[in-house]
Every structure is written in structure tokens, then in C-alpha cells.
Amino acid sequence: MGNNRFLGLAYLAPYLIGLFAFTAIPFIASLYLSFTDYNLISAPKWAGLDNYIDMFTRDRTFKKSLWVTLIYVFTTVPLKLAFALFIAYILNYRLAFINFFRTAYYVPSILGGSIAIAVLWRYIFADAGLVNMFLTSLGFEAVNWFGDPANALFTITLLRMWQFGSAMVIFLAALQSIDKSLYEAAAIDGAGKVRTFFFITLPLITPVIFFNLIMQMVQAFQEFNGPYIITQGGPLKSTYLLPLYIYDEAFKRFDMGYASALAWVLFAIIMVLTVIAFWSSRKWVYYAGDKRS
Amino acid sequence: MKNSLFLSAAVAALVVTSAAAQAADLRMSWWGGDSRHTATQEALKACGAKYGHTINPEFTGFKGHLEKLTTQIAGGTEADIMQVNWPWLPLFSPHGEGFADLNELSGTIKLDNWTKEQLESATVEGKLNGLPVSTTGRVYMFNKTTFEKAGIPVPTSFAELIAAGKVFEEKLGADYYPFQSSQENAVLLISQIATQLSGKDLVDPETGKVSWTKDQLVLAINFYQSLVDAHVVPSWKEAASDGNIMLHEDPRWANGEVGGSYEWDSTYFKYSDPLKASGGVLEPVKILKVDGAVTEGVYRKPSMLFSISKNSKNKEAAAQIVNCLMNEPEGITALGATRGLPASKAAATLLSEAGQVNPILLKANEIVMASEGPSMSPYNEHPQIRDIFKDTMEEFAYGAISADEAAERIIEDANDTLSELN
């Protein structure tokens, strides 16, 4: 019995060592470093709350970057979830070649985080890229997607939206698990497709919407590759998301203390929004066996 | 007999022990492309064999190398010999103590192969932190073929360049520009104009503050704007329409829609190679000057240094290898011009005698070396200073602030940062 217990621990050891060495220790170390002035070369110097005070009182870039990040998250997440649900709803029908379409729509998610896709995106939306070629062929003016601050963030948002596959697959599984008799009963009562969707489908998949919402929100707050490769945060910092700012502070300006403080503020924002989402979920998420009416 | 046998054995043992103590296991790190990687490994083999040392190579591309080196230096695990970018000196060695002082190894490294000016550029507070591998500078390069298409010669002055803007627009079309300058290139161009007008570098070596006056900087910024207005360079916004793309990867450069740029002489082939497909020929020209210039204001600097770690347990052995790579035929021949034209006199002589240097590269380098200008501070390329300049110029280019406000902000913020750094 005792041996089995140790055997279990031995199996867990590689994961636990990795968790402590590469997640827990850096996590705690970054909290300590956020209260220091640390440039990697000299030893960290205790700075108390200076980094946090600077961030909220003097740092114009932080305010801009935080604002851009919030706009990005609050546009990307709802759009992506709505689009993923829309496609999942269509793919839930018994269409010809349905498995091919399901795979095809999932592929961008597999490729999504890669540098190559970000580079491809840059070429598609470039001045003489595919999108502008299409627009001009229809008689429209070419659009400056990356050079105009009003468009650049939207272009990055589209890249993230295009990677809707993983959320879609989860929605699809949820849609398929809905009891068909509910739809039959609704049809007998004379409910149309729209009413069925809003009064049967949507309430029954709220746990999955909630799960996707949390996952997509956390991912969106951590977006890095797209803006880093495509725009480097420009123009006029219109795509300068917080993870880019953290990276620049840490590895371009070697201000590890400040970068750690930024990372902890980002962590706190994600944490607060997640808590709000969990709190609000009591009002709109329905689980099987729920007694609410 | 017995005694002499014993003595011989003792001497032999001493020789073996001494040889073993001299043979060192070293590490050398650098960044570069494939040709540099291959050549450096060959050179390390040759120099290692000459001195009986083993040198383990650690090489990467440029991207990410600074992060890697920083992490190593922070952890005290850096290689014995390091290729260090010159502007990184203030980051790693603000007071000269970040690297071994090579003056102390001058018995092994022949320092007389470098000029006083070259050694000074790598000296921080009296400590020689590295040896310049090559000297590089920014030169104006023009696509001769595009200018021929426009029916005008390659410009030799800013006045000619400005006149070319209209000709390009009328004869070749609105998409054609005789030059490009945005982001870092715009910063370097404006810096050069300010240097030409003031005769001074950005940082005053005496005070450690910005040496340009607000008026000089305003003139330089307005000069940049005049290039945009005269269709000489695409606006910042227009240049950004292709996203974050390097000029040499930009199809507009490859097909000749952009007629010229202001680049490092050592990167000549990086910019000339993409032109081959469209039949373009890239020509480096003398530094262009503005009216009222008191100097050419060439931006010249050591392209990179070979430094020795202050933590190395084998500094003497590392110095032997550095000397071999930079001053001795085994190293010089193997390295060739993979790091540009060598700064070491011994290497430059040997390579030019052997015909190992491309004439066009030589021409570009001659322009840099023959041009005049004040000594440049490594703070020009300090990430914080560069960001202040670039971000402010971007705001100016997008019309968010005036030239006056831009100049004021650059000087004020750069002075604040310089005070923090020193």
C-alpha cells in the first residue's frame, strides 16, 4: 500500500517539479520583483510600491496600453464567441460533407498561434494585399489596415476571431448533447427556429458559453504573437497590448521590476473579471438539475 | 644515472602538467547568419589547434541574442569570449566593470592593430571592454536602375533628392518614391540632419545631456517633413500600411518602387540581393548634406566587439583566441569578411591582399571611413532613448503634435533618461 503511494508520487514528480520550477517559483519571484528595481545585471533593489505608483500616476504608455487591451478583449471575446456559436449551429445540421467542414473550420485554431499565420495575415492585409485587391476590384478604395490607428486593432481582432475553431468544437458538442425531444415539443407548440434557439438552445448551453467566455477572455488578455509580428504595437500604440508592453519593459528596457509589476496588474485584472464572471454566472448559467425556473 | 633519470622524469612530469594547465576549455558566443557561423567555427578550430584549447561555439540569429546574453550575464554563465553589439555597452557595463579589462591582457592581444579612436570607442571609464571587430556606418544607397527609368542621375545632394520626388511621381507614378524613411530610419535621418546643423552628436560627452538645441532639432524634424511633402519619402502612415515589414523583405523595395535608403554599409548585400530579380543595381553614394551643414555627420561606430567575460577562469587563454581571431592569419583567413571589413590593421591588410573583400563593400566602407563627423555615443541606440525618439516622431508624423512639441519632448525625455542611466 505504502509502495503504491510512493509510486503515485513518482509518477507525479515530473509534473510537480515542472510546476514548481517553471510556474510556482517564477510566479512568486515575480511578485517580489514587482516591488524592486531590477535590471537583470545588478542585484534587485527594494523599491516598495514605486513601480505601482509610477504605473498609475506617471506612465502614459500604461494607460494607453491598458485601454487598448480592454477594447481588444471586449470586442474580440463576444465577437469570437458569437461567431463560433453561429458556425457550430450551422455545422450541427446534417449537411453533405459535414465532417470535412467541421475539420476545415477547426484548422485555423491549430495554426492560429503560429508566427507563420501572423506573417500571412500581414501579407493579406498589406497595402497591395489580397483584401485590398478584392476591395479595389469591386470599385472600393484600398484601406490602410495597419497604418491607420482606427483600423489596426480591428485587423488584429479579426486574426483572433478567425481562430474560432476550439470554441466552435466545444459549442458543437454542447449543441449535440441537447435532448431532441425538447425541440420536438417546441415544434408541436408552434415555436419557430428563432424562438427555439433563444428559449431552448441558448439556456441549455449556458454552462458551455460560460466556460468558453472564461477561456477566451484569459487568452485574449495574453495576446502577443499577432500584434508583435504584424504591427509591433503601432501605429501610435493603437495595438500595444499589455503583454507587448511587459515584454518590451523586460527584454528591451531591462526593467524587470516594472515588467513584473505590469504582469501582476494584468493578472489582477484577469482575476477580477473572472470573479465578476463567476458571480454573474449565478444569474444566467443553468446547469442540469437546476431548481430555478 | 639514477639521479638523472629521476630528474628527467620530474622535468617530463612538469612539462605535461604545465601543458595540461595551459590547455583550456573555453566557450564563445555570437550571433549571425549561416556564413558567419560556419566561418567562425572553422576559425575556432584553427585557433584552438594552434594554442591547444578547446572552444565550444554558441551561436544564434540576431533576434533574441540580446535576451540570451542578458540572461547569461545575469546568471554569471556567459561564455568566455562574447560577440557584443557596441550599443549594448551601457547596458552591461555602464561603469566599465561588466567585462574583463583587455588593457590587462595587452601582453597577449596586440592592441596596436587598432587606432586610438577605435580603442576609445570600446573603452568605458578607462577599461577596455572589447575590441572592435569592424567599423560600420550608415550610407545612402540608391537603386541606379530606378533612377535611370526616371531619367535622372543618382542624387549626390539633398537638393537633388528633393527634386527627384516630383520627377518620380510624374514619370513613374504616385507609388514610386526616390527614398524611404520611417521608424528607425527616420530617427537616424533626423539625427544626422541635427548633427550636420549643430556639428554635434545627440549626447554631449562632457555633460551627458542632449547637445542639440530645440531650434536645431525643430529644423531637422521639419526637414524630414519637407521630404514627405515633396514626395521623396512615403509618409509614416503610408509606410506602415504593410505592417511591420523589413525593407529588404518588402516587395516595393524588390521591384524598385522605393529608390533608395540609408543603411549600414556592412548590410549592402542584404539590400542589393532582393533587387536582382528586377534587374536593380544598388549604388552607395557619399553622405548627402543639407544647406548650412557644418559637418557630414556620418553615423560611424564599431559594428560589434569581441569581449572577454570578467567571470572567465581562463582569461589568458581567451585572450590568445581573441588575438588569433583578430590578428593572426589562422583566424583572419577563416573568418574572412563575415563580420564586415575588419577593424584590425593586420586583418584588413591580409584580407585585401588576398582579394577576400568585395569591391562594392569596400567602396561603401570607404565612404563611411572617409566622411567626417563627431564621435557617436552608444546612447544613440539605447532602447529607451530610441523609443523616446521613435514614439515622439510617430506622433509628429501622424499630426498629433507639432515639430516644436516633438523637439521639446525628445530633448526633455532624453535628458531625464540619460540622467537615470548615468
TrEMBL record, chain A:
Keywords: Cell membrane, Membrane, Transmembrane, Transmembrane helix, Transport. Pfam families: BPD_transp_1. It is a multi-pass membrane protein. This is Carbohydrate ABC transporter membrane protein 1, CUT1 family. The chain crosses the membrane at residues 12-35, 66-91, 103-121, 152-175, 196-218, 261-279. The keyword Transmembrane applies. Belongs to the binding-protein-dependent transport system permease family. Gene3D superfamilies: MetI-like (1.10.3720.10). GO terms for biological process: transmembrane transport. It is found in: Cell membrane. It comes from Roseibium suaedae. Residues 66-277 form the ABC transmembrane type-1 domain. GO terms for cellular component: plasma membrane.
UniProtKB/TrEMBL annotation, chain B:
It comes from the Bacteria. Its main location: periplasm. InterPro entries: Bact_solute-bd_prot1, SBP. GO terms for cellular component: periplasmic space. SUPFAM superfamilies: Periplasmic binding protein-like II (SSF53850). Residues 1-23 form the signal peptide. It holds the Pfam family SBP_bac_8. Keywords: Periplasm, Signal. It is found in: Periplasm. Belongs to the bacterial solute-binding protein 1 family. This is Carbohydrate ABC transporter substrate-binding protein, CUT1 family. It comes from Roseibium suaedae.
